[in-house]
Write a structure and sequence with these properties.
single chain, six-stranded mixed beta sheet, 28 strands, binds magnesium ion, alpha+beta, Molybdenum Cofactor Biosythetic Enzyme, Chain A, binds adenosine monophosphate, Molybdopterin biosynthesis moeA protein, domain 3, Molybdopterin biosynthesis moea protein, domain 2
Length: 393
């Protein structure tokens, strides 16, 4: 049995980032990993522009009524210079005329008659956005390796990246094993249960930014496991099986992995839940034998498989940023030989509470969980009020 930190380091050490980025249409890049730096080809703003609707004038003229010489709409150019005692009516985003050094907001002015305006505010502000104050030609606005969110789509649109370069999505084969399993559309009969892991893993794979391939329920037979696993290894960069990794009579997964030439790097991790988690490689292919118990499979995918998928894509952030919060009640456990992974709920953003959790089969507990906290080996208690790192789900 190895410690989680060792297992994590081992997995990541076997990941070879896929060096085959592709160009996609801007909107198709959402949630993909950016594979090029986004460099500005323009100055923004591209000209000095007004930040408000109002009157462009000279700051030294504010005590007198100002003659309005023209109106400048957004998208049009000034035709006159602002001379002492004059101003130009100007709209937000329109270019500042020469001679003006401030814009009086409409709200701070009063029309003296059709041709003159007076300042009624207390203190005049500039209200001018200077050329290039937001970004300059050649500035790097986004570094490669981030996961593209809607805000990055806006930046890429502003900078002309209509076909950004993104990382190729790894293919992930998903193989739930177990003779007791039936698909969700079936009412389980004696001895059967519904296959939740298969769907959970497809969803987790998608959420991690990879392409899932679902191979259906694999029966607990050596031949079936051999055949489907061989196919999945050939067709994917990552394969995740669930079930068949414990000590039962029909747990064939590690044996078949080895028979297929997969080198097993570990088959037991000091975590709870998720102890029988098994990991092997065949060339650059990663094979994860996750426990059959749904919570174990869920958490070990989040902790080990997801960072591997992200590294395959050249993503700079392999894990979600932890949120530091105080514990809302005492946490106690009797044994501490393994690192405990405890599903928790965040209470109104200010504290964190372990959810009622009966163990690794209790997938329903995760329905109420916002995150997971890790209780280190050797720690049996965390007192109410102590700060813990919550890994968001
Ligand atoms: P195993 O690791 O194969 O011994 O399975 C451990 C437990 O997880 C057993 O109670 C299984 O019935 C359950 N289990 C295995 N696979 C799945 C699955 N795909 N969906 C839901 N539960 C499962
Ligand atoms: Mg099984």
């Amino acid at each position: 049995m190895i410690r989680f930190e060792e297992a994590y380091a081992l997995v990541l050490s076997r990941v070879v980032t896929i060096q085959k980025p592709e160009r996609v249409l801007l909107l198709e890049s959402l949630h993909r990993v950016l594979a090029e730096d986004i460099v500005s080809d323009i100055n923004m703003p591209p000209f000095r522009k007004s930040a408000v609707d109002g009157f462009a004038c000279r700051m030294s003229d504010l005590r007198m009524p100002l003659k309005i010489v023209e109106t400048i709409a957004a998208g049009s150019l000034p035709t006159m210079q602002v001379e002492p005692g004059t101003c130009a009516k100007i709209m937000t985003g329109a270019p500042i005329p020469l001679g003006a050094d401030c814009v009086l907001p409409v709200e701070d002015t009063r029309l003296a008659d059709d041709l003159y305006v007076e300042f009624t505010g207390m203190e005049a502000k500039k209200n001018i956005c200077e050329l290039g104050e937001d970004i300059r030609i050649g500035d790097v606005s986004i570094n490669k390796g981030i996961i593209i969110g809607p805000q990055h789509i806006a930046i890429m649109a502003a900078l002309g990246y209509h076909q950004p370069l993104v990382a190729t999505q790894p293919r992930v084969g998903i193989l739930p094993t177990g003779d007791e399993l039936v698909e969700p559309n079936i009412k389980p009969l004696g001895g059967q249960i519904r296959n939740s892991n298969g769907y959970q893993l497809v969803a987790q794979t998608k959420a991690a930014g990879a392409l899932p391939s679902y191979y259906g329920i694999v029966s607990d037979s050596k031949d079936a496991t051999y055949e489907v696993l061989a196919k999945a290894i050939a067709e994917n960069e990552v394969v995740t099986l669930t079930g068949g990794v414990s000590m039962g009579d029909y747990d064939y997964v590690p044996e078949i992995m080895e028979k297929l030439g997969v080198t097993i790097h570990f088959s037991s991790v000091a975590v709870q839940p998720g102890k029988p988690t098994t990991f092997g490689t065949l060339d650059n292919k990663l094979v994860f034998g996750l426990p059959g118990n749904p919570v174990s499979a869920f958490i070990q995918f989040e902790l080990l498989v997801k960072p591997a998928i992200r590294k395959l894509m050249g993503c700079k952030q392999l894990n979600p940023t932890a949120i530091r919060l105080p514990l809302a009640e005492d946490y106690r456990r009797n044994r501490a030989e393994r690192m405990a992974l405890v599903p928790v709920k965040i209470i109104a953003g200010s504290a964190v509470l372990p959810v009622e959790f009966h163990g690794s089969a209790h997938i329903f507990a995760l329905g109420n969980a916002d995150g997971i906290i890790a209780v280190p080996i050797g720690t049996t208690k965390i007192d109410k009020g102590e700060i813990v790192d919550v890994r968001p789900l």
